[in-house]
Input
Amino acid sequence: MKHFGPARRAVLLVVLALLAVPRLGVAAEAPRTVAVLSLIGDEMSLVTRRTATGSSLDRNERQAIAIADPSFDLAAALAAERAIKEAMPGAERLRVTVGDKRLFALQDAVLEPGPASNPMREALQALLRDAKASHLLLITKRRDDARFRLGDSHIGNGKISGIGIFIDNVVGLDDPQSGIYGNGYFAAFAYLKATLVEVETMRVLGSANGSESMLTTSIGSSAVDAWEALPAAGKAEHLIRVADLAAYRATSEVVAVR
Output
C-alpha cells in the first residue's frame, strides 16, 4: 500500500475538497423558469397606401381592428417557448396570459418607472413571483419602416407596427421570368420586440427586434387584384406564420447570450 507524506496528504485533501464543491455556473446555478407574455394580439392594423405626390411623407390610411381571439399571442408565445427551449434546454417555461387592456396599451413601457406604469409593473411582478418565475420574456409591438422583401430588394411605404396587413394598389409589378404583369400587392407583417427581464428586480437584461412579412400579388392568378388572390383563410394563416417567425427570431437573439 502506498503511503503519502504529510505534505502530499495535505495537497490531496485540498484537491478532494475542491472536487466536492459544485462548479460555479454549472451545478450551482439556480434553475431558471422563464415566463412568456405576449402583448401583440389585441388588435391588428390594416394599412392602405395612398398616393402622395413627390414626397416620402407617410400618408397611409390606417384602421385598427380589435381582436378578441388569442391566436396571435398564442402563436408568438409558442414560438418564443420553442426558441427558449433550444437556447436554454434546462429552463422551465411558463406561459402567462392577461386580459387587462391597460397592459396591452402600455406595451414595453410597463418596464419603465412612472406614474402610469408603476401599478401595472408591480402587479405583473407579483404575479410572476407567485408563479415562481425567475425571468420574463415579454413580446411587444414595435414601429418601423414598412419593408417587404421582393426578390433581391424591398418595397413598402411609411411606418407599420405590430401585426397587420399592408395593402398597396398603386405599384405595378411584373415577374421578370414570365413577364406577367400584376397590379399591386398586400403583405401580412409582424413587427415585434422580445425583451428578457429579471423578475426579482424587473431589470431589463436585453432585447431584440423581429420582423417578418409574407407578400402576395395577383401575378399568376386569375384574380383582378392581389387582395382577391388569397382567400380569407390564407390571409389568416399568413398572419399566424409571420407572428411565429418574428417572435422566434427575436427571442432566439435575446436569449442566445443570456
